[in-house]
Amino acid sequence: xxxxxxxxxxxxxxxxxxxxxxxxxxxxxxxMVPGVVGMCGGICSCATxxxxxxxxxxxxxxxxxxxxxxxxxxxALRRPNSRLGCQIAISAAMDGLEVGLPADGNAG
Length: 108
Description:
Mean pLDDT: 94
Number of strands: 5
Shape: globular
Radius of gyration: 12 Å
Strand content: 15-25%
Helix content: 10-25%
Strand order of the largest sheet: 2-1-5
Order of helices and strands: EEHEHHEE
Oligomer: single chain
Largest sheet: 3 strands, mixed
Low-confidence stretches: none
């Protein structure tokens, strides 16, 4: 298992163990992290798993595919380190990763 900490916009932290065969969205929804809905089930068609990666992780991961970029471009709370959690596969190297969550409950 990989320890991932999801940090709500108010600073509330939720550290959960995530199976390396999952993605960030699944890790949050299966552990009932507030603010991560995963409404589309992980098919990259909504933004209810919008999250902020630590800046040093942005370059360590593959860049967003075109579909993810289009969804991110439409978000009012997008930042340079915004990603959709459903598109970030968990790996053992991510143990200890801290992921920020937007203030609006991940809708945008």
